[in-house]
């Protein structure tokens, strides 16, 4: 049904518009009484064999929603009914920003893929924090980045701002220094910057932050990567197609 009728229809339109349109439909759908209950009973599968305990977090299953889909945390109440093991919001930047000029999302039909040149379009930390204040029943990751207008020399303060604002709202952080869509961002994939950010920042409270750093896959081939990994990582975690995640469990010093 979806492959034969729905997706050919949706593919007639601009992908970004369709994204917003389906988000809008989702809100309407969930206004219908018992729809949430029904969707949850269809899509949420609970089984001991699916549960994972990693980095001190308990995941009901290993399938999560990647960053970039619900960037602004507007639909977590709806998506938590679809049985995700976790939902990663963002990338969130301190200030709201509109992202790159449109058109910036391209379908590659033959490859069943898309090219994303969004550029961290998001509503900013303040508004997103408000949306995260509800009690959700799903593990939430906060993927954070720097604003485009922030020079790399001040990038650390952007990330630390996001840590401070969101640490009560999310279960883990992902420090995004790998996006190719913010000019110069990948220059932050340096030992100096990451060491400084992860180990030196102060946050005013004695809490543990679970932080992942999303690094470009290209780095694995360079010595630079080893330098970063050896000097600051608490452990390697997982490797996505083009990103390496390294995790840190860090205790802020103040
Ligand atoms: C339209 C779009 C927007 C995305 N935005 C973000 C983002 O803001 N932050 C981020 O870390 N990843 C973002 N991503 C990357 C996804 O989180 C994910 O890593 C990517 O789609 C590859 O996942 P896959 O290998 O499972 O297909 C975006 C992807 C797409 C297609």
Commentary on this structure:
The termini are far apart. Strands 3-4-7-8-9-11-10 form a seven-stranded mixed β-sheet, covered by helices on one side. Strands 1-2 form a two-stranded antiparallel ribbon. It is 30% helix and 22% strand. It has helices spanning 2-10, 15-29, 35-43, 76-79, 125-131, 155-166, 191-200, 223-232; strands at 52-54, 57-59, 64-65, 86-92, 105-108, 113-116, 139-144, 172-176, 209-216, 235-239, 243-250. Helix 7 (191-200) links the parallel strand 8 (172-176) and strand 9 (209-216). The longest helix has 15 residues, at 15-29. The chain has eight helices and eleven strands. The chain is globular and about 50 Å long. The protein has a single domain (46-250), classed as Alpha-Beta Barrel (TIM Barrel). With 254 residues, the protein is α/β, with parallel strands linked by helices.
State the main characteristics:
11 strands; disordered C terminus; 254 residues; alpha/beta; single chain; seven-stranded mixed sheet; binds flavin mononucleotide; TIM Barrel
Work out the helicity level: 25-40%
Q: What structural class results from the helix and strand content?
A: alpha/beta
What number is the mean pLDDT?
Answer: 83
CATH superfamily: Aldolase class I
Task: Present the secondary structure layout.
Layout: H1 2-10, H2 15-29, H3 35-43, E1 52-54, E2 57-59, E3 64-65, H4 76-79, E4 86-92, E5 105-108, E6 113-116, H5 125-131, E7 139-144, H6 155-166, E8 172-176, H7 191-200, E9 209-216, H8 223-232, E10 235-239, E11 243-250
Parallel strand pairs: 3-4, 4-7, 7-8, 8-9
Antiparallel strand pairs: 1-2, 5-6, 9-11, 10-11
Helix pairs in contact: 7-8
Bound molecules: flavin mononucleotide.
